[in-house]
Design a protein that fits this description.
Length: 97
């Protein structure tokens, strides 16, 4: 694999995609019989979207430690940036929506 994975944009892209994949897995395995739009409206109605987004950011820890152990510093910075962006979105939704 080499150092080609040690790029900021790779860490940022993985840090954004992993929570989206986690969200889809929660939907797919947790609520398979409900349509996706009804699932979203139910999560928003129950005011659980910030909690769901926070839960979906947890897989970033695994990829963060993976890159950290391989000393891919730039990719690690991308993961941290994506996690901070997710945190910012959760704060905005929690306090302003």
């Amino acid at each position: 694999m080499g150092r080609r994975w040690n790029k900021f944009w790779i860490g940022l892209a993985l840090g954004i995609l992993l929570p989206l994949v986690a969200f889809m897995l929660i939907y797919y395995f947790g609520y398979p019989k409900i349509h996706f739009d009804k699932f979203i409206s139910h999560v928003v109605m129950m005011k659980a979207l910030p909690k769901m987004l926070s839960l979906c950011a947890i897989p970033n820890l695994a990829i963060f430690y993976f890159f950290l152990n391989r000393e891919y510093w730039y990719a690690t910075r991308g993961i941290i940036t994506a996690t901070l962006l997710c945190t910012f979105v959760v704060i905005v939704i929690k306090f302003f929506a």
